[in-house]
Each structure stands twice: as C-alpha cells, then as structure tokens.
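We were asked to recover a plausible sequence for a given structure. The inputs and outputs are reproduced exactly as logged, with field labels preserved.

PROBLEM: sequence recovery
POSITIONS: 160
GIVEN STRUCTURE:
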C-alpha cells in the first residue's frame, strides 16, 4: 500500500464485496449540510439516489418507476448516507447502530408498496453493517420529492 494510504474499513470492504464503491459526499442542492453530529449520533440530511453524481431516474413510483427499480434507488440513497456519515466520523467501522431510517417514496396515488421500496435501503444497511444495521424505520408515500426523485432516505446512526 502506498505511503499515506489507510486500511479500508470492514464496512467499506463489505460494500466492495457487493460491487459498491463508497462515493464522494453528494453536495447539497439547497441550504443545508449532508450530515450533522450531535453527541454520539450522526443525522444525515435526506439523501437522493445520485449515482456517479447523477440522478438516474425521476418520477413517481408505480407510474414512471417500478417498485424493484425504486428499491435499488433506495439502496443508492443508503450508500450516499454512509458517505455522508463517513464524512463526519471518518471510519464507518465506528458505527455501533443504525438507529432509524426514514424513507420517502414519490408515489403514484394508487401505489401502496412504500415499505418494499425502502427495504432496498434497509437491506443494504443490514448487508454491510450486520446486526448494527438493524433499525427502526418509517416508509412514507409523498406527492413529489426534490428534483423529481423517486426516493429519498434519511439515516440516524450511533457511533463510538
């Protein structure tokens, strides 16, 4: 390993095993910061499913975006939340618990599968954090999200 490089965290190694690279923190699209630390908790702002710096899908789930694709987008939101958390605590291995996930799904009026969509984020967090990724959660259907995103995810993490 070249001088100055640090070892990859176990969490980032699990992401890599899943074929996922932790991205740079997505810059805010309005007047806020991506994450805030208070005490032993990190609160992320709502994370959109930016992949490679781009919002890869827009529209309503159940009309423009199918539920399976939206679940994949929710997983991307969780990855972006992990990047925001890392920007605050430096090492994702410091996470002791994902306390809460709140997922918003821009939904066609007839769509009622919001929990299955947000499972994309929940399952990703469980896969990379194990028991520490098990969390309380809300999955909420909304009329529209910023930039016409199909999903948005917030995370509260406890760390040491």
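RECOVERED SEQUENCE:
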């Amino acid at each position: 390993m070249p001088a100055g490089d640090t070892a990859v965290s176990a969490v980032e190694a699990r992401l890599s095993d899943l074929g996922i690279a932790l991205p740079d923190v997505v810059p805010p699209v309005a007047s806020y910061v991506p994450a805030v630390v208070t005490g032993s908790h990190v609160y992320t702002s709502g994370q959109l499913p930016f992949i490679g710096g781009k919002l890869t899908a827009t529209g309503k789930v159940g009309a423009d975006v199918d539920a399976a694709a939206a679940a994949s987008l929710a997983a991307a939101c969780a990855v972006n939340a992990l990047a925001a958390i890392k920007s605050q605590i430096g090492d994702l291995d410091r996470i002791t618990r994902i306390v809460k996930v709140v997922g918003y799904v821009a939904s066609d009026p007839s769509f009622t599968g919001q929990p299955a969509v947000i499972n994309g984020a929940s399952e990703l967090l469980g896969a990379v954090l194990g028991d520490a990724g098990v969390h309380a959660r809300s999955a909420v259907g909304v009329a529209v999200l910023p930039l016409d995103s199909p999903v948005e995810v917030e995370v509260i993490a406890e760390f040491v």
